[in-house]
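**Backbone shape codes:**
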Amino acid sequence: MNSTTHTRRARALALEERVLAGIVTERQLKRAKRVCKRMGSVRWLGTVLVELGYVYRARLESAMAAAGLRAPFAEFLMEAGYVAEEAWAALKLPIETSAGEVAHELVRLELITEPRLQRARGDYLGLPFVEASYEVVDWELFRRLPGRYLREKRVVPLSEDEEAVTVAVADPELIVSDDISNALGKPVRFALATEAWILGAIEAEARRSARTARGDAEELPEDGVPPLTRDLLLAAATRRASDVHIEPLPDRIRIRFRVDGVMLHHTDLPLGLHERLVAQLKVLSECDLADRRHHQDGRFEFEASGGRIFDVRLATYVTVQGEAVVLRLLERIGGCLDLTEIGMTGEVLHVFRDRVLASNSGVVIVTGPTGSGKTTTLYAAIKHLNRDDTKIVTAEDPVEFSLPGVIQCQIAERYGRGFEETLRAVVRHDPDVIVLGEIRDQLSAEIAVQAALTGHKVVSTFHTEDAVGGLLRLLNMDIDAFLVSSTVISIVGQRLVRRLCPVCATLQRPQAEDLALLKLPRDYFGDRELSRPVGCEHCNGSGYRGRLGVYEVLVLGDELRDAVIARAPAHVIRALAQRDGLRTMLDDGILKAIAHTTSLAELHRVVPITVPARPLEELVEVSFSLTSSSTAAKDHQ
């Protein structure tokens, strides 16, 4: 560390202490310093003041911001969960170490990946993070800076507008913005990128220049997907994202991925690329390129590396900043999953497969909010029912999996093949099982009920919070209570929870906070240890990789049918259902937590708590007896 940096840091620390002294008493500050000294390099003085109850976090942050200061970068990393406290303690660096030095050490020791670190640094400094196709680079602007300077300082100019020039840097602490401003004639805005990306951009320009000198034509992609869009989709496929969110903000385009149900920041792009990127996606999706005043939907096909093919659904949404875009990626795989592969186990699997799906007629509904895996469960059920002696006819929008032996119909309003016409035609096609992609309204609910009354089995999905909510919503659609009671066999409620990463998960006694959030008594798990997430390279630092379902299967018995006819309130129906043996999503999630496949924190994040969990001994006993009997039956066969 040079003397200039040392002097700058000393001044910042002195100013910071004056700020802290202005919001707490001298005695409180001295005590906090003693605590910090005992803890070594792990905690920042400001955080210790908060933890001791001497100042509120909001007051601390306000005072620091007013003085132009912020918490140390290492403290931010620990608070935001990017780096574990134990990992930082092992570095034995002062908490006040500069962001550049912290970044270098963490990456060198492989405690965090460089892209993840730079995203964190962007959050800390309030700067965009860029790691996308080199198409985002303004090559004319690029050539206005000396190549040696670009390589030495790790700088890449990205874009220029009327007010300033945006440049990507690996470490803003090494850059004197006046040098770039003088060379380009405008103020400079910083964006963060990894060193590897910046060096790659410099090499890309060298190759472009060489091609230009030889007079080579620009290579065009065979599938017509432009490089900027292709890079974005490839990154999403690599990170196993289900959705790509393209969001225009006042100063940038924010790109986020939904991975395992959680939104993660991927990159930021210069705002000047917004119209170009949206136009590329609209052309691919056959949307109206000129219409920027209406929300639009479309779809296209995309092939990733390794021959993976994705159906991409596009939805635009007109905002005050411009059109926001969401892309849903649906990979075409060899076939849909089995019931056991989606997370159904124990009593849930036994009841749904051997009782509900084995019935000859009636309505079976899978419920949950958007993104809860209803369609996957629906297809798993169809796969189980698909036999030579059973005719299955579907009405879907869209058809997400092609199932051999199943008569599938795609709803298409533009061709007069709307939902109402299709549903009426399905009944006349002599099916044994009718599959409705979704019960959308009173009409589709009435057709489902009428089909069940004539001896058909109807399987569909519904948007409700839980299984009991599905019953209540049918009644609120003005469907006769007697018809609901006599036709509905079962309603399945479900959610998707993240699977713990098998590489880095570690054992720990359940924390009191997690137990309280799930409304479980402190001694609920006894001496059991459960697994908790840590984070590693395999799971991109999240502690989770993949998802599985948690379920509740409500089967209507006589008492429940009477309650439905009487239009009993929700709490009465829930009490009757639990007394009749219903295992809730919370119960199923607890069994998955003791099987070390998910965590209590994940259950609290996802699972609705409508009634208290059953005693653990009861859950484990039933699950064990069912597993044992299932194994014995297989051995006998």
The chain has 26 helices and 17 strands.
